[in-house]
Design brief:
Layout: H1 4-26, H2 28-32, E1 34-36, E2 46-54, E3 74-81, E4 83-93, H3 94-101, H4 107-130, E5 138-140, E6 144-153, E7 169-174, E8 177-188, E9 193-202, E10 207-210, H5 228-231, E11 260-262, H6 273-283, E12 291-294, H7 296-308, E13 316-319, E14 322-329, E15 332-338, E16 347-350, E17 355-359, E18 366-367, E19 377-378, E20 384-397, E21 404-406
Parallel strand pairs: 1-17, 11-21, 12-15
Antiparallel strand pairs: 2-3, 4-20, 5-6, 5-10, 6-9, 7-8, 7-10, 8-9, 12-16, 13-14, 14-15, 16-21, 17-20, 18-20, 19-20
Helix pairs in contact: 1-4, 3-4
Length: about 425
């Protein structure tokens, strides 16, 4: 139907920019975090992440003319394994494609097919970049015994089922033990209830994963991308990073490989300017925070603070192309930006220059080609065509101590 040259032009000049635009329009993290393909090692297995774990102490005042004894600083280099962050397939009816080309280009059929898929892709990438790299979506709230009715909760969101959709296929694990294997969702019935396509049994607190996303071992192509909740922590991330630590660095071996965490023992408290300043004071010893991400509810709390205290200016500043409320700190205007994927009751203090999305393809999307070199592949015995693509990437940091987390903030009713 389309020659190879036309296919390449169609996918690389039309569909790929559309995918990227859709992701950028919905994912503030993807839009604003630096992308790099220059630190990928020759075989493409991982990126080399540079950072300074400990610097020289050979400095200070002297009472004689001698210089301090030279010490070698210990620059760190860790591995950020490249993940299959997104694998996707698109299918088109041959008649629709051929009919649409009569107008000169198959855009209408292509546009219809890609729109819904790429919205879901953007949301899933946003979830991965925000959470802890484990692939956990939500967990069972109670055991199930030979039943299709699954009740879920989440440590991050009141709407625990927000990333689950009808027809999505899931697995369930308790630690590294598989309990539910490749079961599809029939319906999402509420924020905490879903119906499976058949009877299953599971343990209370078992975690829900996308099908085949779970891995107990960190490595190339295994599991999901690392996210901010795995980086901005004072503990090693969960599986698959529990044994080796974030980027292969355990806190037990590198005590400074932690972020600044300001919690309240799980008890919510009202947001205040002083709490925000405390986090900033700790982060500023190591980096310059350039954005504060909040959940929608915490953003409303901060806006309420601006209205209550006339000393806090209620003006807008930008982070990349995103508008945020202004937080004044030490003569700087820092944007407080709402990201709907930020876990509830939290503020994330970021120096975005210390984050890198390592990707194998500068254009982000790689379209896979068949034996004949074409992207569109005909489905055997059907007047249908499929295209398959992927995004291979992972999130890394070189300076974990420069981030801060303010949590246990009361969300508005």
């Amino acid at each position: 139907m389309f020659d190879i040259t036309t296919q390449d032009s169609l996918f690389n000049e039309y569909i790929t920019p559309g995918v990227v635009a859709e992701i950028v329009s919905r994912s503030k993290l993807w839009a604003n975090i630096r992308k790099s393909w220059k630190q990928i090692e020759p075989h493409g297995r991982y990126a080399r992440q540079k950072h300074l774990m400990a610097s020289t102490e050979a400095t200070g005042a002297r009472s004689d003319a001698s210089y301090p004894t030279a010490q070698e600083s210990t620059p760190g280099e860790s591995k950020v394994y490249i993940k299959r962050a997104q694998m996707f397939s698109l299918k088109w009816d041959g008649l629709a494609l051929e009919a649409s080309t009569k107008g000169g280009t198959p855009m209408s059929a292509m546009e219809f097919e890609k729109k819904g898929l790429f919205i879901r892709m953007a949301d899933d990438l946003s979830r991965q970049l925000m959470l802890d790299g484990s692939g956990r979506i939500c967990q069972a709230n109670g055991a199930g015994i030979t039943t299709p009715d699954l009740v879920v909760n989440s440590p991050w969101y009141t709407n625990a089922s927000r990333f689950l959709k009808a027809d999505r296929v899931i697995d369930m694990y308790l630690a590294a033990a598989l309990e539910v294997n490749s079961r599809s969702i029939t319906s999402v019935d509420s924020t905490t209830e879903i119906t499976l396509s058949g009877n299953e049994s599971w343990t209370d607190d078992a975690w829900i994963f996308n099908e085949n996303a779970f891995t107990a071992t960190e490595g190339m192509g295994k599991g999901e991308m690392m996210g901010l909740m795995g980086i901005i922590d004072d503990a090693d991330p969960p599986l698959p990073n529990a044994a080796a630590g974030l980027q292969g660095l355990l806190i037990a071996d590198y005590p400074d490989w932690i972020a600044n965490i300001f919690g309240n023992g799980g008890v919510d408290r009202e947001l205040s300017e002083d709490l925000m300043v405390q986090v900033m004071d700790e982060c500023e010893d190591y980096s310059q925070v350039d954005v504060i991400l909040t959940s929608p509810g915490v953003r409303r709390k901060y806006l309420q603070l601006l209205k209550e205290y006339v000393t806090l200016p209620n003006t807008k500043v930008l982070w990349g192309g995103w508008s945020g409320l202004k937080f004044d700190y030490d003569g700087r205007e820092i944007p407080v930006v709402m990201d709907k994927f930020t876990p509830e009751g939290k503020m994330l203090f970021l120096d975005s220059t210390q984050l890198t999305i390592h990707t194998l393809n500068p254009d982000l999307i790689t379209w896979e080609k068949g034996d004949a070199g074409g992207i569109l592949q005909k489905v055997a015995n059907y007047n249908q065509y499929v295209a398959e693509g992927h995004i291979f990437a992972n999130l890394g940091t070189g300076h974990r101590r420069g981030f801060g987390l303010l949590e246990d903030i009361t969300e508005p009713a």
